[in-house]
Amino acid sequence: MITLYDLLFANDLRPSPFCWRTKLALKHKGLAWRDEPCGFTEKQKVAFAGSQTYPVIHDGTTVVKDSWAIAEHLDTAYPDKPLMPDKPYARFVNGWTDTSVNPAIFPLIAGDLFDRVRPQDKEYISESRGKRLGTTDFAGFQAKAREKGVAAFRAALEPARRVLKEQPFLSGDAPAYPDYILLGTFMWPRTLSPLELLDKDDVVYAWRERMLDLFDGMARKAPAAA
Ligand SMILES: N[C@@H](CCC(=O)N[C@@H](CS)C(=O)NCC(=O)O)C(=O)O
User: Is 67 in the pocket of ligand 1 (CB under 6 A)?
Assistant: First the structure.
């Protein structure tokens, strides 16, 4: 049985966009796994993998860290139902999401995220994210960021919008890893913040609805922010 080391917030919330990539990839393959929830200050749980981040998986005797490496491992070890039939395209979506989409979300939810961090992890997040943002007033930072940031986030999605105007999923007629990458990103604000990032008439909104329904509504049913 595969073990997934999954980032844990307060009230058992599991928002990590990278861990969601892995969870959706495992479901796509039809593989069962056991969750090992880990807080920000519990990195000793993934020290065996030499990792400072989640996700990590333990698959038999194989240990894999980093969501991209995990997707590659799953396609090699379980070649049925490929996650990445077009690997260069998947790599592009991975890089685009990491560098253009995720950074556009973080400022918009920084305060809501901080509110939902486990109490024992707050000092670590305050220091590490405070350094990144230049302030520990996360609520104030978030309020300011939302003035222009929602429009900027929507603009960053334009490459996906152009694809989704032509086909139901980023990967064509059926979802695959590129779709899981982007849905993973949407699971992050969905789990941590009541902020709605998309207009209802956006093709990305309709795609997200289809994605939330996959695997018997696995992502839709996951605990989300009130
Ligand atoms: N490139 C890595 C990034 C993973 C990552 O940054 N994970 C975050 C959670 S969303 C993390 O574990 N952060 C730990 C920390 O900030 O201390 C991947 O794709 O797995």
Answer: yes
